[in-house]
Amino acid sequence: MQFFRTPPSSFTRPLGLVALVVLAGVQARLAGAQPSAPPSTLTVQVDQPGARIPDTLFGLFFEDVNFGADGGLYPERVKNRSFEFPDPLMGWKQLDAGSSRGTVQVLEQGVSDDSGNVHYLRLQAGSRGQTLGISNEGFRGIGVEKGAEYIFSVRARHVNGEPVRLRVELIGAGGSSLGRATLEDITPAWETHTATLRATGRDAQASLNLRVEGSGALDLDLVSLYPKDTWRDRKNGLRPDLVRLLKDMKPGFLRFPGGCIVEGRRLDTRYQWKTTLGDPDERRLIVNRWNSEFRHRPAPDYYQSFGLGYFEYFQLSEDIGAEPLPILNCGMACQFNSGELAPLDELDTYIQDALDLVEFANGPVASEWGGKRAAMGHPKPFKLKMIGIGNEQWGPQYIERYREFARVLKAKHPEIALISSAGPSPSGEQFDYLWARLRELKADIVDEHYYMAPKWFRDNAGRYDSYPRNGPKVFAGEYASQSVGIASPNNRNNWEGALSEAAFVTGLERNADIVQMTSYAPLFGHVDAWQWTPNLIWFDNLRSYGTPNYYVQKLFSANRGTKLLPVRLDGSAKNGAGDLFTSASLDEAAGEVILKVVNVTPAAREVRVRLAGAKNVRKKGQAFVLANSDPKAENSLDEPMKVAPVAQPFEAATGEFTYRLLPNSLTVLRVGVAGGRVRR
Ligand code: AHR
Q1: Which residue among 478, 488, 532, 549 has the greatest number of ligand 1 atoms within 8 angstroms of its CB, and so is best to mutate?
Q2: How confident is the model at residue 322, as a pLDDT?
Q3: Which of 396, 549, 558, 672 has the fewest CB atoms within 10 Å, i.e. the most exposed one?
Q4: Centroid of chain to Cα 549
Q5: Atom nearest to 61 CA in ligand 1
């Protein structure tokens, strides 16, 4: 397998990472077939609740990779809708090109420098009786649901010739019409014209045709086809099935906008949150850094329109009950690309961006940036509590820049926790260097990343058992098991990887006194337009599904509990060393003990569970079981629930019972104690 993600010679991705995760092949089984083992005893010390589990323990990492924003969560159907791509007709094609005598031209309008909308299209139809048309291909097609309504809109003006009409038509992949409308009365003044199209059929790969009827010319701009059905029925709203999947995870936080996209390949293409506010029509698009990152997965049509910008992000966080966690550029472009640095004496702009972001999120309406938030429809603050300084940076250059950010931010906003970077690898010289410096600087929370083999996750479930308890807390900010190797296009979201992550997550949870936040990465992948795999959620233009990894995350997050409970496996507190992995917590509001057990063997296992010190144990408990005997099992658009949790009641007796764990399984047991109620 080729490791395509080559850093420039001056920056070397820490060797440990590459060496560890580039695997010869996928292991056929999680562990060799074993004879059934004698029952292990799991003792949960219910009367010894420990540290409080942070609400942020399980969260989400969003990055606009794999068409996660445009073409994904942001449901605008028209690509390059205002002809601003460097190739201004990318995504568009002329209809009947051979026969039509008209012309199609992209022109520039005199607008202010900060406008994101400079270009428009002129369609000059030929002689009477002929039509001139163009067609938009959408994002690997346009998805339309039968019976659903789509709002077509366009800025248009009549330029010359006789009055002309604009015919708008949805065309299915097979060529049939799926709905049409005609816009008349187009005057010489720029005006927005709208029409509602109700789709007469279902198609994930439709296209949108626009035809000028009559002999004359029309100018067109800001072409849009937007589904009426959006999350919370919002204008410029998000795709509901994808938001639902996020909300169902009960995420503690939402990291945004990444990821390397924060950094840009060069500093001028870094993510700049201020340019993502205001009227979506005016937001200036930039190239998406994943457009050309991987030679094996080029995406020349991948741009960031910022229709999903920072306001929409804060709103989404609020909607799904997640703390916002914006990650800001710290004056460093991606170190896997140019590694361009903003000189230390020119960091002010970057630091000011951070200060202004706090004001945008939390400031009073009377403040400059709080006022902009209010003008966009959210006078109340977004309650921002933390910010990431840089993404996956490393080296002394990072520490120098982090120090400057921390100095200013801590003085002005001591209430905001700062997330700092431990680099791209979970161990090695750079990692140790960063941790040592960040410890000296008394950093709040350090972000660790691990894109490693499934086995690494099983072998490292005890990683945090011996981490120092004083000093910075840990954010496992990006992780995912790589079935083949990091960023290999052959990686799969299979059950082996997900179950290995589950084993590891028991260790994250058991150490929730130090591990404050965790998130799988990346979040989304369009099945026809991805660059990076594996991903938590896959979708096409109409459907979506959670991977086995998604259901692991969901089970942990939805069954988090509020306090840690000590759990011993066969008398030892050091669990996770063999093939059973456990963690336990107390959900004080529900009055329930929650025990998670991961069995990574291909054999069923009986365990004897003891809820030591538990009072008033409810006889019936509730189990949630995620299992599959095939480590290669995957979910898909057609079989979205092949690996999905099953709820089953079980007998909890008086707090001591035997439970049979399925082969290759994650089991969550909830038992009511001390008068608590049992979930049904
Ligand atoms: O999640 C994909 C990428 O992996 C992220 O953009 C980056 O932070 C990491 O290298």
Answers
A1: 478
A2: 98
A3: 396
A4: 13
A5: 1
Distance CA 540, CA 544 (A): 6
Task: Kindly report the backbone phi and psi dihedral angles of residue 635, in degrees, each rounded to the nearest multiple of 5, phi listed first.
Answer: -90, 165
What type of residue is 195? Answer: A
Cα 306 to Cα 309: distance, rounded to the nearest angstrom: 5
For residues 363 and 422, what is the distance between their CA atoms, to the nearest angstrom? Answer: 30
- Cα 261 to middle of ligand 1, angstroms: 8
Q: How far apart are CA 255 and CA 264, in angstroms?
A: 17
Which tokens is 445 given? 């929370």
* Ligand 1 geometric centre to CA of 403 (Å): 23
Q: How do residues 581-590 score in pLDDT, each as one tens digit?
A: 999 999 999 9
Alpha helix ranges (H) inside 308-420: 310-319, 348-362, 368-375, 396-412
Domains of the chain (ranges; CATH) run 17-53+563-676 (2.60.40.1180), 60-75+234-558 (3.20.20.80), 92-227 (2.60.120.260)
Model pLDDT for residues 103-158, shown as the tens digit of each residue: 999 999 877 767 889 999 999 987 766 789 999 999 999 999 999 999 999 999 99
Cα separation, 371 vs 538, in Å, equals 37
Report the percent of the chain where pLDDT is more than 70: 92
Find how far residue 346's CA is from the centre of its chain. Answer: 31
The gap from C-alpha 250 to its chain's centroid, in whole angstroms, comes to 14
Q: Return the best residue to mutate from 64, 392, 479 for the ligand 1 pocket (most ligand atoms within 8 A of CB).
A: 392
Residue matched to tokens 């159907």? 77
Report residue 315 as tokens: 């709103």
Look at the block and give the residue holding tokens 């701009």.
221
Residue with tokens 């369009």: 526
Nearest protein CA to atom 4 of ligand 1, as residue: 259
Q: Which of 237, 231, 182 lies closest to 211, judged by CA?
A: 182
Q: Look at residue 534 and tell me whether its pLDDT is greater than 70.
A: yes
Give me the active site residues, please: 392
Residue 576's pLDDT is 61
Closest CA to 166 of 187, 185, 182: 182
pTM, 2 dp: 0.94
Q: Which of 269, 393, 421 is nearest to 332 (CA)?
A: 393
Mean pLDDT of 11-22: 31
Please name the residue that has the structure tokens 């992209």: 106
pLDDT at position 98, please?
Answer: 67
Nearest CA residue ID for atom 8, ligand 1: 259
Tell me how far CA of residue 678 lies from CA of 53, 618, 619, 650, in angstroms: 21, 7, 9, 11
Pocket residues: Cβ below 6 A from ligand 1: 63, 65, 258-260, 391-392, 424, 478, 521-522, 532
Q: What is the pLDDT of residues 564-580, one digit of tens each?
A: 999 999 988 776 657 99
- Is the Cβ–Cβ distance between 593 and 565 less than 8 Å? yes
DSSP label at residue 380? S
Average pLDDT in the chain: 92
